[in-house]
Write a structure and sequence with these properties.
Helix content is 26%, strand content 11%. It has 5 helices and 3 strands. The chain has a 3-stranded mixed sheet with strand order 1-2-3, with helices on both faces.
Length: 162
């Protein structure tokens, strides 16, 4: 990572800013944000929609989605929790798995307690509303991000600033 950042050595503390001009919103899905720590995540000031499954063991919720929401410091942020969802629930349709991965399809295509297409619909719903608000200032979409009106089975939704 330090080579990619153009650094000669690995920094002892916070790394230099990797901000990219023109990025107006962030949607980390099943992320590993823990490695950035609270000081690094607090440098995120743009709106964030953190999405994750609470049973994810590859990128545990408390390492990624939780800190992404909790520690980002923007005025507007949201967290979509797929209750008991695992890491692979966010991957593409099982029909699109390449032939050489089909023997592993069980790992990629199953998630106990979740209907994959429903998980994808929920993820698209919130991501679309979030991006419409943040990139187009769509106030009708903003209502979809108000925790008071969100009522879908198998999820928890938190937001601030909507």
């Amino acid at each position: 990572m330090s080579d990619l950042a153009g650094l000669n050595t690995v920094p002892e503390g916070l790394w230099p800013d990797w901000g990219i001009d023109g990025v107006d919103a962030l949607v980390p899905i099943a992320s590993d944000a823990l490695f950035f720590g609270q000081p690094g995540l607090s440098q995120i000031t743009i709106p964030v929609l953190a999405i994750g499954g609470t049973a994810d063991q590859d990128a545990p919720f408390k390492w990624g989605t939780g800190p992404s929401y909790e520690f980002s410091s923007g005025a507007r942020k949201a967290q979509l929790s797929l209750l008991a969802g695992e890491h692979m629930i966010f991957t593409g349709p099982c029909e699109s798995i390449r032939w050489y991965l089909r023997p592993l399809a069980g790992e990629f295509c199953s998630d106990p307690g979740w209907e994959r297409s429903y998980a994808h619909q929920i993820t698209r719903h919130f991501t679309t509303a979030f991006l419409l608000v943040e990139l187009r200032d769509d106030q009708d979409a903003a209502r979809c991000l108000s925790p008071e009106i969100v009522n879908f089975p198998q999820i928890e939704f938190n937001s601030q600033g909507y």
